[in-house]
Amino acid sequence: MSEYPIHDNEEAQDLAPRPLPLDAWHREKGARMVEFAGYLMPVQYEGIMAEHLWTRESAGLFDVSHMGQLEVSGEGAAKALEALLPGDIAALKPGRQRYSLLLDEHGGILDDLMVTNRGDEYYLVVNGATKWDDICHLREHLPDEVTLNHLDEHGLLALQGPKAVEALGRLGLEPAFPGMSKLEELRFMQAAPFFWQGRPLGVSRSGYTGEDGFEISVRAEDIGALADALAGRPEVKPIGLGARDSLRLEAGLPLYGHDLSPEADPVSAALTFALSKRRRAEGGFPGAERVLALLSNGPPTIRVGLALEGRMAAREGAKVLHGDREVGTVTSGGFSPSLQQPIAMAYIESALAVEGAPLEIEMRGRRLPARIVPMPFVPHRYYR
């Protein structure tokens, strides 16, 4: 679990974990609550394994209202964001979404985030554990003519799984403007505004499970009604943090504070797709000289996927061994409910990062045989 960051700005909160807008709703559903990123959040309802497999087979409803929702607007907003992110924000068309990285001056990863062009503004979703730091960083570096707005009166729901489109579609969402795409016409990484019973929703076809699905930004005052409507569908069940973590691990998706940190860069983190072609050519993002050199010459370490033999899972911080030599460190690990075997992500020496290469992981005085495998561990099923 991540510690809640302490700040001096006016939006900083005290150390007591905050409840989500749906706190009572989760408890009524039998959730076991834990502290995560400064909030009390549901870790599970009926069990992580069952919730994980339900999401893969049907549709899972996740409360991710701890995430930071930000709006960046004003003249030169795209250019200002490109001074902080390595993505081609200027080429992002209205209604399109892009994964990107907030980088420090050395190219270290301060956060990973989603950017959506909403036409008159850019909508950012940042990690809950880092959002106050992100807000401070953005306010410090964005020019005066660009406005940053924290949507702190909004919640965020993620509906994930092969039946997500069926479940959300049956609620009868209406496009906010004539001629806009219908819900089922949205493809992966596309977004649009809708109304549900007169309530405004911001919907994107995205998520962090590897499954088809949606993320839905909704006013906190409306989130209970929407959660009730979705959970009332027979194909939908509420899902906790535990299954969200195992799902994203199977999907090979990194988690900030574990697989990503300021010590990692986009190249060593195997996130070079976030370095847009134009930005590679032009640079101009934080740490560009170092990052582009790593891209050309190769990084000393790189994030890889590992499949383990046996049933014991590797955990964060475990040493990765090649013979008697330590060659890396596990950053995420667990038992895969879909594959019925332990899997992990680790940073290892790049020279050893060859598919099928045998390694060992040291856990509790034991050496667990492992081999390098491609990620994702479970194929993505995005609707493209």
CATH architecture of one domain: 2-Layer Sandwich
Number of helices: 9
Helical fraction: 10-25%
| Largest sheet data | 7 strands, mixed
- Could you give the order of the helices and strands? EHEEHEEHEEEHEEHEEEEHEHHHEEEEEE
Strand arrangement, major sheet? 11-12-13-14-10-4-15
SSE-based structural type: alpha+beta
The CATH class name of one domain reads Alpha Beta
Mean pLDDT: 95
Number of strands: 21
Q: Over the alpha carbons, how many angstroms does the gyration radius reach?
A: 21 Å
Here the CATH topology of one domain equals Gyrase A, domain 2
Percentage of residues in DSSP E strands: 25-35%
In CATH terms, the superfamily of one domain is: Probable tRNA modification gtpase trme, domain 1
